[in-house]
C-alpha cells in the first residue's frame, strides 16, 4: 500500500493530536503550572520542572509496565511489593557478593521482578484466575518473602554507587539520569506497542481475547509477557528508588500502586483494555506528580491532599473517561 | 432427591467454606491451651465479625459484576466517625450510631451514583472515592484516639446470657434483617441478573440502575456497621491506611473463598461470612501453633494465594476452549 492511501487516522502522530483525553490531560498540566505560578514564581523555573520530571520518572517507569497489563484488560496489584522486592534484592546482592555483586545488583533486582511477573502471568493465563485477585495474592506472598528476607538474613540495604548514580546523577547537560532512563523505557514501550507484531497482539487481546485466539494469536504468551514486563518495570523502578533514597526499606512501593493506575487511566487508557496510547500515560504521570507536588508545596495537610487527589481523578474521568451507554 | 442434589450443587462453594471453617476451628480449639470457653469464643468472634461484615459488604457489588475497593476506607471512616460521635449518654450514643450508619450508606450511595450515572468503571471509581473517604477519616481523626460510649461497646463485644458472643448475634441479626430480605427482594434478584448478563437483564425490564445503586449503598452501610464494631472493640478511632488496605484485600479473598464468583451473578453473602471466618481462623492457628513470627506473613500470603487458586478448578470443567475467554 502506498503512503498516500493511508487514512489519516492510522498515522499515530495525527491520531494522538485529536485524542480528547490527551488534550484535556495536557491542558490540565499547563493549567496547574500556571495556577502554581500564581502562587509562587518557582513553579515555572527550569530547576523545578526538571526536578518534577526526575520524580515523575520513577512513577513513569512503573506506569509503563502497569499500562501493558491494563491494555490486555488485566490489572497488576502486585506492584507495591514488586517495587520493594527489586530494591531489596538489588541491595542484598551487592552486599553478598562484593565487587561482582555491585555489577549484578541491578540485573538481579530486575530479574526478580520479572519472575514475580512470570508467576502472575502463568496464574492469569493458565489458571484463568481474575488478575485482580491473583496478583493481590502474589503481593502478599512477596511481602511475606521480604519480611523473612530482611528479618532472617539481615541483608545489606544500602544502594550501590551505580544505583545512586542512575537515580540522582546529572552528567549530561544537567538532565537527570532518571529522566533519561524514563525516556529510554518510554521509547521502548512506544516502539513495542506501535511498531511490532507483539504490540498489535496486545491491543487485540485487550479488545477481545477470543477473537485474537481464533485469529491464531497465542494469547497466553501475550498475557505472560505483559505481566513479565510489568514486574520487571516495577522492580527496576524499585532499584532506582533505592538509589534515590540511598537505601531499600519495607513497604517503599506502597505509595506507587494507586498513582500508577490513576496515571494510566487519566491518560485515556481504557481500564477494560484494548485502547490507549503511551503519550497519554506520560501526560497522566506528569499530571499526578505535579498534583502531588503542588499540594505538598501548599502545605496542605494529608487529609486535604487525599480528598483533593481523589476528587481531581474523579472529575477528570467524568470529563472524558465515561463508558458508552450499554443498551443494545 | 433431585432437588436436594441441585441445592447442594448450587451451594457448593458455601458448603466447602463452612466445612473448611469447621475443620480449622476444631483444630484451633483442640490445640488451644484453655479450650472452648465463652471467653475464647467471644474473642474469636469479635475479631471474625469485623471481617465478616466487610466481606458481606464486598459481596453485594461483586454480585453485580462490580467491585468496591473503598470498603476498607468506609470501614475506617466509620471507625473514626464513631470515635467522635458515639459518646455521651446511651441515647446520644444511639443517635451517633445512626449518623455513622447514615454516613456509611451515603458513601456507598456516592460510589453507586458515580458508577451508574457517571458511567465510570467500579474499580477506578472506588479507588478514587476510597482516597476521598480516607482523607475525610484523617480529617475527623488526625491522630489515633477518641472514645466510645462504653455501655453500648461493652454490650456489643460481650456475651448474651453469659455464653453467646453478642457480636455473633449482631451478625445473625444483620443477615436476617438486611441480607435475607435483600436477597429475596426485586432489587436483590435484579442484582444477580445484572451480574449474570447486564444487557439481557436490561432487555427483560430489570431495574438495572436501581439494583446497582442499592448494592453499593448497602455495601457502604455494611462496611460502616463493621467500622462501628471495630470502635466497640478498640474503644478508639484511627485513620490507618494499612488497616483499610488489609480489610479491602481480605474482603475480596473472603468473598472468593465463600464461593462467590468475581464474574458476578453467583454466590451469597453468607458464603462470604464463612470465608471471613476461615481467613481469621488461619491467623489464630498460626498463633496456637506458635509459628515463628518472621514466617507468618509468608504463610498467610501462600494460604491466600492457594485459597484463591481453588477458583482455577473451574478451568477443568470447561469443554470448549472459547469459554475460557468469557
Automatic annotation (TrEMBL), chain A:
The chain crosses the membrane at residues 21-40, 52-72, 79-98, 104-126, 133-154, 174-193, 222-244, 256-272, 279-300, 306-323. InterPro entries: ABC_transp_permease. Pfam families: BPD_transp_2. It comes from the Bacteria. Keywords: Cell membrane, Membrane, Transmembrane, Transmembrane helix. GO terms for molecular function: transmembrane transporter activity. CDD domains: TM_PBP1_transp_AraH_like. It is a multi-pass membrane protein. It is found in: Cell membrane. GO terms for cellular component: plasma membrane. This is Ribose transport system permease protein.
Automatic annotation (TrEMBL), chain B:
It is found in: Cell membrane. Coiled coil: none annotated. GO terms for molecular function: transmembrane transporter activity. The chain crosses the membrane at residues 12-30, 36-57, 69-88, 94-116, 123-140, 160-180, 213-233, 239-257, 264-282, 294-316. Keywords: Cell inner membrane, Cell membrane, Membrane, Transmembrane, Transmembrane helix, Transport. GO terms for cellular component: plasma membrane. It holds the Pfam family BPD_transp_2. It is a multi-pass membrane protein. The complex is composed of two ATP-binding proteins (LsrA), two transmembrane proteins (LsrC and LsrD) and a solute-binding protein (LsrB). Part of the ABC transporter complex LsrABCD involved in autoinducer 2 (AI-2) import. Probably responsible for the translocation of the substrate across the membrane. This is Autoinducer 2 import system permease protein LsrC. It comes from Phyllobacterium trifolii.
